[in-house]
């Protein structure tokens, strides 16, 4: 029997909890084990129902999501947190990721991304909805004139995230620096690097740099 991914939902709107529950119940490997309507009970609720994944709203009464996340950070928990928020402010995104959140989705993108986000975070990856990911990277490239805008095309070999990674590798950013700038782990950066080299059949970092210049990903 396949072990199901246990999910806890925390949001101050019951209608959203109900909607997400209905959506997640369509996935046979998922089990919604509980919910919270304010931040004061989230930690204890998750502890009690032994959830693997917490979907956490930022704006909640009594104790907001950031304070709840701080509690998880201070007390420790194996539960992985995905923020689901109406806000896409970069300052908030940076704060919650530093506090240990493993993913960030806007509520506008929840229907499209939440299943993929849960699966990715459960497997140890970080996950951002496209709008959030682009916001993080665009804020970074504003201060680096060597980085060229590069709209993603559906038929290209590399994913949007891989394009971001190859740009930074080509500019000689270390794995640690990339992980800090994009709020992803060093292991995730290394996995992306290996996938990029495999997809492009490139054997060295020099080859990645040549590819980035040839395809106008960076300014030489």
From TrEMBL:
<feature type="domain" description="Response regulatory">
    <location>
        <begin position="6"/>
        <end position="122"/>
    </location>
</feature>
<dbReference type="InterPro" id="IPR016032">
    <property type="entry name" value="Sig_transdc_resp-reg_C-effctor"/>
</dbReference>
<dbReference type="GO" id="GO:0000160">
    <property type="term" value="P:phosphorelay signal transduction system"/>
</dbReference>
<dbReference type="InterPro" id="IPR000792">
    <property type="entry name" value="Tscrpt_reg_LuxR_C"/>
</dbReference>
<dbReference type="Pfam" id="PF00072">
    <property type="entry name" value="Response_reg"/>
</dbReference>
<dbReference type="Pfam" id="PF00196">
    <property type="entry name" value="GerE"/>
</dbReference>
<dbReference type="InterPro" id="IPR039420">
    <property type="entry name" value="WalR-like"/>
</dbReference>
<keyword id="KW-0238">DNA-binding</keyword>
<keyword id="KW-0597">Phosphoprotein</keyword>
<protein>
    <submittedName>
        <fullName>LuxR family transcriptional regulator</fullName>
    </submittedName>
</protein>
<dbReference type="GO" id="GO:0006355">
    <property type="term" value="P:regulation of DNA-templated transcription"/>
</dbReference>
<dbReference type="InterPro" id="IPR001789">
    <property type="entry name" value="Sig_transdc_resp-reg_receiver"/>
</dbReference>
<dbReference type="GO" id="GO:0003677">
    <property type="term" value="F:DNA binding"/>
</dbReference>
<feature type="modified residue" description="4-aspartylphosphate">
    <location>
        <position position="57"/>
    </location>
</feature>
<keyword id="KW-0804">Transcription</keyword>
<feature type="domain" description="HTH luxR-type">
    <location>
        <begin position="151"/>
        <end position="216"/>
    </location>
</feature>
<dbReference type="InterPro" id="IPR058245">
    <property type="entry name" value="NreC/VraR/RcsB-like_REC"/>
</dbReference>
<keyword id="KW-0805">Transcription regulation</keyword>
<dbReference type="InterPro" id="IPR011006">
    <property type="entry name" value="CheY-like_superfamily"/>
</dbReference>
């Amino acid at each position: 029997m396949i072990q199901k991914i246990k999910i806890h939902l925390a949001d101050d709107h019951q209608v959203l909890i109900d909607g997400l529950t209905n959506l997640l119940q369509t996935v046979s490997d998922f089990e919604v084990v509980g919910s919270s309507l304010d931040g004061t009970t989230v930690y204890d609720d998750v502890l009690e129902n032994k959830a693997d994944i917490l979907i956490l709203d930022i704006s909640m009464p009594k104790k907001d999501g950031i304070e709840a996340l701080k509690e998880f950070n201070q007390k420790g928990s194996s539960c992985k947190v995905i923020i689901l928020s109406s806000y896409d402010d970069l300052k908030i995104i940076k704060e919650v990721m530093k506090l240990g959140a493993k993913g960030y989705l806007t509520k506008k993108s929840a229907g499209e991304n939440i299943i993929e986000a849960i699966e990715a975070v459960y497997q140890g990856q970080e996950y951002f909805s496209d709008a959030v990911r682009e916001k993080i990277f665009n804020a970074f490239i504003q201060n680096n004139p060597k980085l060229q805008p590069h709209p993603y095309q559906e038929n290209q070999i590399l994913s949007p995230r891989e394009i971001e990674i190859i740009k930074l590798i080509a500019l000689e950013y270390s794995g640690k620096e990339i992980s800090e700038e994009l709020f992803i782990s060093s292991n995730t950066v290394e996995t992306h690097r290996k996938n990029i080299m495999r997809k492009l059949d490139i054997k060295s970092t020099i080859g990645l740099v040549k590819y980035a210049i040839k395809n106008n990903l960076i300014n030489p």
